Amino acid sequence: MRATQAIIRIDNLKRNIRVIRERVGKGRLICAPVKADAYGHGAAPVAKACLEAGVQRLAVATVDEGAELRAAGIDAPILLLSFPMPDEYEAVVSYELAPLVGDRELAAGLERVAAALNAAGGIAVHLKVDTGMGRIGCPPEEAAKLARFIASLPHVRLEGVATHLAVSDSLKPENIQYTHEQIRRFVCAVDAIKKAGVDPGVVHAAASGGVLLHERAWFDMARPGVMLYGYAPDPALAGLLPLEPVMELVSHIVYIKQVRKGESVSYGRTWTAPCDTTIATIPIGYGDGLNRLLSNNYSVLVKGKQRPVVGRICMDQCLVDLGKDGAACEKFEKVTIFGAKPAFTAADMAEILHTIPYEITCNINKRVPRVFEEAM
Ligand SMILES: *Cc1c(COP(=O)(O)O)cnc(C)c1O
User: Fold this and answer.
1) What is the number of structural domains in the chain?
2) Probe residue for ligand 1, chosen from 81, 218, 243 as the CB with the greatest number of ligand atoms within 8 Å
3) pTM for this predicted structure
4) What is the tens place of the pLDDT at every residue in 295-330?
5) Residue 102 belongs to a domain
6) CA-CA 20 to 30 A from 229: which of 122, 206, 332, 337?
7) Which residues span the domain enclosing 337?
8) Ligand 1 pocket, Cβ-based, cut-off 6 angstroms
9) Which of 165, 199, 230 is the last residue of a domain?
10) In which element (H, E) is residue 301 found?
11) Residue 271: in which H helix or E strand, if any?
């Protein structure tokens, strides 16, 4: 096995799901977003574990992601969160993905394809209302008309109505107010759909931010993504619920050497030893998704101690200063990059990089094998 691995703790994933279920109540559906390869954790194994833990639905962003889950033998309902291209409609129908629909063209296109394929029972869709995210979805005042249009299509079934909140993870008063306004618009749209004589089906709005801060956004189903993987959507919300990181990124020391005071390491000679020290080489670099901006700007965990990454991070390797007492560390010692106490978390790394933990785990790329661990 390669020295560098992403250990995926299925137990923690299932524990996080229990915490989320307790929060939103047993009566509500939970939809697990497993887009972007389950935020980098491995879509099919994560999806299967979510279903084992009682999650009722999955969500993907692309048709290919949906096809991958079907190929893995998953037959649970899958929501398609991004709008497909016309030449993908056929795959949407045949893989039985339930797309978000925000305009007539998409609904009519799916009707055409579902009719041509003679899809049994037609295709389920969720009407997407744009209440203020400004990304995809119809304006709230057009929701009822679009719902009626969908209801008129013989091969398209309205299974739900959804919206997405832009600042639901923020504690700023103006953002809480904006979220309340989005929820108000959404409720109006859903009411108008009902008044038009159409059953809205499963009504849903809350991603992780909504689950943590806005009970009024819970409706019939929650779609918490980043929380499944053990992180709050915003650092200010960390600790509100007892979530555990699912991914631990590890590597191993493959080389150790003594470096004298004044000697430099790695490209660009950006770090020079301030005193005699021990330097370890770790076979992980930006080619694995370890951001190069962490050069001279991060610490990893070796034998219970934080040790600085020194010199530039290379494509395949980086260097760690084990310090004067580094002699106590041996070759092939395990190194935790993030995700296991007391190492940094992906949220800590995100803060250093001015980004969010989502991007950190998503960016750990294909070259890093995912190793799934579950206690029996
Ligand atoms: C990604 C996504 C989610 C999950 O968001 P988190 O912030 O990870 O909880 C929910 N709904 C939609 C529409 C999304 O695109």
Assistant:
1) 2
2) 81
3) 0.97
4) 999 999 999 999 999 999 999 999 999 998 776 788
5) yes
6) 332
7) 247-373
8) 33, 81, 164, 207-208, 223-226, 233
9) 230
10) strand 299-302
11) strand 271-272
